[in-house]
């Protein structure tokens, strides 16, 4: 006797499309993950709804949300596909990959020195890094976990605080000596020297204007600024003596301790922090292992 799933669903590929749309919260995101067009995903979902006689999604302008029936079906489909994934990995000796999304600065300055330990924590999975600059870059999902800056409120995701955002101004020792800067320099004094600027549009972390405002100084924009696209470039410019940069504790500590950078002003702590974040419907043994590893590393 034929299985009920083949009688009711028809093409089993429709279940994989449904799972992707349910996990990622939208048809466009599912299309990107599956290498399909968005209209093709829509057609597969509608065909599945017709065959089952139930609406699986409610559709809005920017998002598709599961109905009660859709949530019930997805709990079964996700569990089934997880078991199939495990079987395929065992049969092909392919452990798969764990996708960790993070900012380039966190990756280069915090994760890269710990890669051997991270790889051991997630063994036998491969670890695939996905770099993003703005939260909008990863709103569509497609990752197993991410390290993000924010207030801990990430809709449809769990989050655990790793460490608070603590920011100090830093520069090369030679630049500090040339401009008379030191650890007790005031925000007003720092305002008189060149800054190294990161493009801070639509980003959640502290900008120069925020740091200066916390020190009671209103920033007057320096003319002819160069806005760098990511934090590793900012650090590189500070290291070669191009100006004062904002330094995030936890990311630049080794450079400061090693003497490559020096702190030239007060530390400001914001209400934000660095969080490990993962989708509510994607918790796994591997995610638990990552969270435990990050928790231990952040506390060390």
Q: What key phrases describe this protein's structure?
A:
D-Maltodextrin-Binding Protein, domain 2, 300 residues, Arc Repressor Mutant, subunit A, 11 strands, alpha/beta, 13 helices, elongated
The CATH homologous superfamily of the largest domain:
Periplasmic binding protein-like II
Oligomer: single chain
Proportion in β-strands: 15-25%
For the terminal residues, how far apart are their CA atoms? 59 Å
Estimate percent helicity: 40-55%
Number-wise, the strands total: 11
Radius of gyration: 24 Å
Whole-number total of structural domains = 3
Could you tell me the CATH topology label of the largest domain.
Answer: D-Maltodextrin-Binding Protein, domain 2
Order of helices and strands: HHHHEEHEHHEEEHHEHEHEHEEH
The largest β sheet comes out as: 7 strands, mixed
Poorly predicted parts: none
Structural class per helix/strand content? alpha/beta
